[in-house]
UniProtKB/TrEMBL annotation:
<feature type="transmembrane region" description="Helical">
    <location>
        <begin position="6"/>
        <end position="23"/>
    </location>
</feature>
<protein>
    <submittedName>
        <fullName>Uncharacterized protein</fullName>
    </submittedName>
</protein>
<feature type="transmembrane region" description="Helical">
    <location>
        <begin position="99"/>
        <end position="118"/>
    </location>
</feature>
<keyword id="KW-0472">Membrane</keyword>
<feature type="transmembrane region" description="Helical">
    <location>
        <begin position="35"/>
        <end position="57"/>
    </location>
</feature>
<dbReference type="InterPro" id="IPR003409">
    <property type="entry name" value="MORN"/>
</dbReference>
<feature type="transmembrane region" description="Helical">
    <location>
        <begin position="69"/>
        <end position="90"/>
    </location>
</feature>
<keyword id="KW-1133">Transmembrane helix</keyword>
<dbReference type="GO" id="GO:0016020">
    <property type="term" value="C:membrane"/>
</dbReference>
<keyword id="KW-0813">Transport</keyword>
<keyword id="KW-0677">Repeat</keyword>
<dbReference type="Pfam" id="PF02493">
    <property type="entry name" value="MORN"/>
</dbReference>
<feature type="transmembrane region" description="Helical">
    <location>
        <begin position="130"/>
        <end position="149"/>
    </location>
</feature>
<keyword id="KW-0812">Transmembrane</keyword>
């Protein structure tokens, strides 16, 4: 039985290697991968979950064991802890930086890649356990994370502060000066250029680099 599982896992790695080789040889490109990923997320993954839960012994037939249900509870607990921890750790960060870090830190979106390996090793029982864990995780990854990301980028200082009074245009990270330890400069709103960003001057000059409290600070190119 172990040899059969190893053979199935070896077949999975062979498929991964074939895809990597096709990418290197130019047979497939990034757009092909993106198209397959969209198809997998929108069609293949929901179909796998539906078949898993509707099969005898699945959730829809009332056949999940307490141990399997505990995995769903663990997924919910993990999601709650990471969301609370991320909000606390990212408090006071620039909105764009916070949005990006929310997308990186929250959720475990590995099911499309992991399901074939799980089934190769543990069979249908493994798929059932993985699916029970993945449903709450998917709600966090595709629902809550997207909502937090959109909320961060929709904050008014981004649209309102891109254009300066001198006609220059800034595209980058900001910090609330009331939280970041600085006073407003020249009557400007209480947000300072802070982090990485690009400032286009009215005379067509540009500075791309690091900022700290509205001044150039660190590495950059003018």
């Amino acid at each position: 039985m172990e040899s059969a599982a190893f053979a199935r896992v070896g077949g999975m790695f062979a498929l991964v290697g074939a895809g990597f080789a096709a990418r290197k040889l130019g047979i497939l490109n990034r757009a092909d991968g993106a198209a397959v990923l969209r198809f997998g997320v929108k069609f293949t993954l929901p179909a796998v979950l539906l078949l898993t839960f509707s099969a005898p012994g699945g959730a829809l037939s009332g056949g999940l064991s307490p141990q399997t249900l505990a995995m769903a509870g663990a997924a919910v607990l993990y999601a709650a802890i990471t969301v609370v921890a991320a909000r606390a750790a990212l408090k006071g960060r620039a909105s764009r930086e916070k949005a990006t870090l929310y997308g990186v830190l929250l959720g475990v979106n590995v099911s499309n890649f992991s399901y074939p390996f799980v089934r190769a090793i543990w069979g249908d029982a493994g798929i059932k356990a993985a699916a029970v864990f993945d449903v709450p995780n998917a709600l966090v990854t595709f629902g809550l994370v997207y909502a937090l990301y959109t909320q961060c980028l929709a904050r008014p200082q981004y649209a309102a502060l891109r254009k300066h009074g001198d006609g220059g245009l800034y595209d980058g990270q900001w910090v609330d000066s009331a939280k970041g330890g600085g006073a407003p400069v020249g009557g400007a709103p209480p947000y300072h250029k802070h982090g990485s960003g690009v400032y286009a001057y009215p005379n067509s000059a540009r500075y791309e680099g690091e900022w700290r409290q509205n001044t150039k600070h660190g590495h950059g190119v003018y």
